[in-house]
From TrEMBL:
Pfam families hit by this protein: T2SSE
GO molecular function, one term: ATP hydrolysis activity
Stretches assigned to the Bacterial type II secretion system protein E domain: 239-429
Record family assignment: Belongs to the GSP E family.
Source organism: Tessaracoccus bendigoensis DSM 12906
Record protein name field: Pilus assembly protein, ATPase of CpaF family
Length: 517
């Protein structure tokens, strides 16, 4: 009996396929265990009127084999990717034990080599059985999926990589919605095979955080900085595991850029720039998704490079420490929740609070202390920063500018460190301006709808003798058609003319809009 020849590989040399050569690409170094999102944000989105000077910042190096997918990327068989991930993870663990690595870069390089092997083996097996192989793009997409499952955000990663996505909203593994840049909300694909698998993914991300965090029935909330995005997740106390990922699209941004986006008028931009330079303390307020952090970054861009900055955030998202050309010296403190164990002082072991960071920062010769987001007791650190006379900047959630002071007073009282009278007194003395944002939806001539964000109002805060304990003067008031317009310029703010603000232009605009000259 004549022996039949076995099928032989007649396809291209796999080493020459982009899928595999890309595994040798350089990647950014990272601390061991740090959660990395691994995406590069594009520099233009068609639905957003972006001025030419505007930049969006993410990780500049690719973490995955081929980087972000395009809208024409092939569909991935996630079941197959999961099977290959299991094989690659086992092989990866065996080799890692034999040749320990010292940093995340070498760890991922080893992972790439292992993924290259298992995808190559799967490709050869498919050829042996079916006599054909998938395209190079399909192989690349499969390898990217395996990499994302091992080192990234799993099935969430392709959604985070999309430049047109602003928010990813997950209510259970199969109810996914995407907030697009233009304001549209569209359905998204499942992000796991089951709710249990989604929880396992979140627990894996928590364990890879630096320091590792616990996501369990005893700790049902998870907050992670993903280096370009922010993840908030809850399970065990919600009817289904729930996740919201907010992408930071605009990190390198200026007030001039916001003028181009019609978020502020040139006059309002000039006023805000002068207020920052004059070291007025400012709180940016608005509802969720109004662009508070983006405006805060634009205000920070008015701070000169000679100033030494300190930032204090529960989850690091401002990103000033990344902009070394604009802010050469930034000390960035991030809160750390600690483990479930309690120390002799009753605090969770390894816990680090913003209060700890603020206390330490007074030895760092800071020119400004910037407390990012104030949601609750962080207000105590905000007040401390503002009382230091540093021209601090913060954000908070409030439905209107007039509600902001009451919101901050309530937070101060809930912290247990202030009575109402003491909170009002301190805020009235140290807070200079409240800048309120508003979102609106604008329909274009083609019928498309996009989300537009504008500064809706600016209040000047001063001590008052009335029952409220403070006085609020409307400097810029709401305009239905766009950004706030000039209204009243208090005498104490006329000093802003020494920082580039033109009071005469303000008075002319105020007269046109019924304000007080």
């Amino acid at each position: 009996m004549t022996k039949q020849p076995q099928p032989t590989w007649e396809g291209p040399d796999l080493a020459s396929v982009p899928l595999f050569t890309a595994f040798g690409d350089a990647v950014d170094a990272a601390r061991p265990g740090r959660v990395r999102s691994g995406f590069t944000l594009s520099t233009a989105v068609a639905t957003t009127p972006t001025p030419s000077s505007l930049h969006v910042v993410g990780r500049e190096a690719k973490v995955g084999p081929m980087g972000p997918p395009t809208e024409h990327s092939p569909e991935v068989d996630w079941d197959e990717a999961s099977e290959l991930r299991a094989l690659a993870s086992k092989r990866f663990s065996e080799r890692a034990a034999q040749s320990p690595f010292v940093d995340e870069t070498s760890r991922q390089e080893l992972g790439r080599a292992v993924i290259m092997e298992v995808v190559q083996e799967a490709t050869e097996a498919r050829f042996a059985v079916h006599g054909s192989v998938s395209s190079a793009k399909a192989q690349d997409a499969l390898a990217q999926a395996v990499f994302d499952l091992m080192f990234g955000l799993g099935r969430l990663q392709p959604l985070v990589d999309r430049a047109d996505v602003e928010n990813i909203i997950v209510v259970g593994h199969d109810r996914v919605f995407l907030d697009l840049v233009g304001g549209e909300k569209v359905p998204g694909p499942p992000v796991a095979a089951s709710d249990e698998e989604l929880i396992q993914l979140l627990q894996d991300l928590a364990s890879r955080a630096d320091p590792p965090r616990v996501f369990s029935d005893a700790n049902p909330d998870l907050h992670l900085n993903l280096d370009g995005a922010r993840l908030a997740a809850s399970a065990f106390v919600t009817h289904r595991p729930s996740v919201v990922i907010r992408r930071h699209r605009l990190v390198r941004i200026t007030l001039d850029d916001l003028v181009g986006l019609d978020t502020v008028s040139p006059l309002l931009a000039s006023f805000l720039a002068a207020a920052v330079k004059a070291r007025l303390s400012i709180v940016v307020s608005g509802q969720q998704g109004d662009g508070k952090t983006t405006l805060l970054r634009a205000l920070c861009a008015e701070i000169g490079p000679e100033e030494v900055l300190g930032t204090f955030e529960t989850e690091r998202e401002l990103g000033l420490e990344q902009l070394v050309d604009e802010h050469p010296v930034v000390f960035s403190w991030e809160a750390r929740p600690g483990s479930g164990e309690r120390g002799p002082d009753g605090r969770p072991v390894n816990e680090f609070t913003l209060q700890d960071g603020m206390h330490a920062s007074f030895r760092y010769a800071l020119d400004r202390q910037i407390v990012g987001e104030v949601r609750g007791r962080e207000v105590a650190q905000m007040i401390m920063a503002m009382e230091s006379g540093s021209g601090s900047l913060s954000t908070t959630h409030a439905a209107s500018a007039s509600d902001t002071m009451e919101k901050l007073v309530s937070c101060a009282m809930q912290s247990g460190e202030f009575t109402r009278d003491s909170a009002v007194m301190k805020l009235a003395r140290c807070l200079g301006l409240v800048v309120q944002l508003r979102s609106m939806y604008v329909r274009g001539r083609d019928g498309s709808v996009r989300k537009r964000r504008v500064v809706d109002e600016v209040l000047a805060i001063t001590p008052g003798e009335e029952s409220a304990g403070y006085a609020a003067t409307t400097v810029f008031r709401s305009d239905a058609d766009g950004p706030a317009v000039a209204f009243v310029l208090p005498d104490h703010l006329r000093m802003l003319t020494g920082h580039g603000f033109t009071a005469n232009e303000f008075l002319l605009e105020a007269q046109r809009h019924g304000g007080v000259a």
